[in-house]
Specification:
Layout (H helix, E strand, L loop, with lengths): L8 E11 L7 H11 L4 E7 L5 E8 L4 E9 L1 H15 L5 H10 L4 E10 L18 H14 L2 E4 L4 E2 L1
Antiparallel strand pairs: 1-5, 1-6, 2-3, 3-4, 4-5, 6-7
Helix pairs in contact: 1-4
Length: 164
């Protein structure tokens, strides 16, 4: 079940990790990478293709009041998206490191779509310490970093056009 279907969560943003399809990880490697960043993530709906390669999953970060739907895509439409992203990013002032990432992006033909959701909290739903609950975007950043490292890919926030 996608988090889009869960009324307790509200979609906030979508980010991408672009990479070369030969770097597509197995589901087991993705699970291991998430396990390495901490026990605070709960994985559900993990799916692999017949060869054991990652297809999709949902990651819930209860302490951050967020969740992530992650899915794998490849094909000609990804390469078209890469060209679009390269054109948009080329128009801005880039550092030398960002220029290197942009050159690397041109080689990408696969992508993870990461849909970021915020858990909706009722006003009387507070922690025992009385401070209340707050959405924390760090779960997205941590997962993007883990997936980028695993695939040797490039994380992008398409709304802002920022290489992460």
């Amino acid at each position: 079940m996608s988090m889009f279907q869960d009324s307790n969560y509200h979609w906030r943003e979508t980010c991408f990790v672009y990479f070369c399809r030969e770097n597509r990880p197995t589901l087991r490697k993705v699970l291991k990478a998430l396990e390495a960043v901490g026990p605070q993530y709960q994985v559900t709906n993990a799916q692999a293709d017949p060869e054991g390669r990652f297809e999709s999953m949902t990651v819930i970060a209860p302490d951050a009041f967020s969740a992530l739907d992650i899915c794998y895509l490849e094909g000609p439409e990804i390469q078209e998206e890469v060209e679009k992203q390269v054109k948009e990013l080329s128009a801005s002032d880039l550092t030398v490191a960002e220029q290197k990432q942009l050159a690397k992006l041109r080689m990408c033909d696969a992508r993870f779509d990461i849909f970021h959701f915020e858990r909706l909290v009722e006003e009387d739903d507070e922690d025992d310490d009385g401070l209340g609950d707050f959405f924390d975007p760090s779960a997205l950043i941590i997962v993007l970093d883990a997936l980028s490292k695993l695939t040797r890919g490039i994380a992008i926030d398409p709304q802002s056009g920022i290489l992460l």
